[in-house]
Amino acid sequence: MTTHLQATTTLNNGVKMPWFGLGVFKVEEGPELVHAVQAAIRNGYRSIDTAAIYGNEEGVGQGIVQGLKETGISREELFVTSKVWNADLGYESTLSAFKLSLKKLGLDYLDLYLIHWPVAGKYKDAWRALEQLYKEGKVKAIGVSNFQIHHLQDLMQDAEIKPMINQVEFHPRLTQKELRDFCQQEGIQVEAWSPLMQGQLLDNPVLQEIAERHEKSIAQVILRWDLQHDVVTIPKSTKEPRIKENADVFTFELTAEDMEKIDALNENHRVGPDPDNFDF
Asked: What Gene Ontology terms describe what this protein does at the molecular function level (predicted)?
């Protein structure tokens, strides 16, 4: 069982990644973003996830600088992720996009760099670029996001290095069990985006009953469910009380019956685009 906020999973290349982190999707540049990242670090978070398309890498970088200064921890103790956007997929364009992300973040290296979406005909060239960045030590781990089984199989046919992460939409209405099973067989760590389904699950009666029994919030129950499925999770929040509350999921454990009840909520329902039918 994952027992504390800074607990890590070991990726297939030996790199350790925190099970829990802060996501910043749709958080605009500005003081709120900077303070959120700083607050996360202050409260023990050691993983921050952003992306080029979020348009907030500079603010994330500022929050990291302030958080490190306030807490006295080293850069090496943080795990920072960004992603290359669809328009930049390609060998040279991905290398350029990575360089720009690094500059905006104000960092010397990234801990994880992902291909954001599996754009047909483009992700293999982008993957070659990620492999090059990895070999050069500019990124500690490389992976993908929103890849389905057939995308992973296609990529791995030609890849020299197997992806270490697949970050996908994952919540009780979209459990993606076949994909998770495939990734587990291949040694690819699954990571959840939109774990709380953008707030759409916070009045669910099944989750409410489980939450009341454990004296936790529905959000905490969902995040605990993620961890007990061995899925890395990165809930988004800009408010320090919620950042702290989200991370308070290590003092209880869901029962097997709880897990089954939550699994049974699956409807294969997405709040984000379908990776196979995304208008890029």
From this structure: oxidoreductase activity
